[in-house]
Amino acid sequence: MKKIVTALCISCMLMLTGCQSAYYGAMEKVGIHKRDIMVDRVKAAKESQQDAQKQFSSALEEMQALLNHDGGELEAAYDKAKDEYDAASTAASDVSGRIDKVESVAEALFDEWQDEIGEISKATLRQKSQNKLNQTQRAYQQMVKSMRRAESKMAPVLTAMKDNMLYLKHNLNAQTIASIKGEFSSLQADISSLINEMNRSIAESNKFISSMEQ
């Protein structure tokens, strides 16, 4: 049974690799190269982080409105906060998926670049291309580390949000709301830290995009 599962996993990986290669090949035929795809994916990842920033801020605002709720239906305020939490969770997943796509095309681009350097016969041109590749890889590594660092801060924030939302769901009354106001201060600080980390990541993305478009 284990051998069958292993074989299926390998088969799926080969199919995925083949699909990616076919995609890149088809795009190159219409003049869109891996470098172009990489820049587009970095831009998309940056935009997804900007969207996530807004969504986390919106979720925080709705939770604050719920905790400061004064009169009216608590359930309606809770539902709005829950909707914003769900949207923040979706936005976080989108960020992760976008970063994965950046890493995928980067690997293909750098492998191709390295292979093509070996085909350059003139030593001076070969060295210049190698230097440019090394420089681009360093800039890329700095950017993607910043992306992943910002990404890593989303999960703890979402967990804290979920804990608070579930607790409130099970005990939706003024006394319960008052009891978690202390924890909310910590959540505010965590979201502020997340947004700052995303700003640093976005700045790194802009710098990398600029270097690739020169």
Automatic annotation (TrEMBL):
Pfam families: DUF2959 (PF11172)
InterPro entries, alphabetized: DUF2959 (IPR021342), S2_sf_CoV (IPR043473)
Signal peptide: 1-22
Gene3D superfamilies per the UniProt record, alphabetical: 1.20.5.300
Keyword Signal annotated: yes
Domain of life, per lineage: Bacteria
Keywords linked to the UniProt accession: Signal
SUPFAM superfamilies: Coronavirus S2 glycoprotein
Protein name, per record: DUF2959 domain-containing protein
Organism, scientific name: Shewanella avicenniae
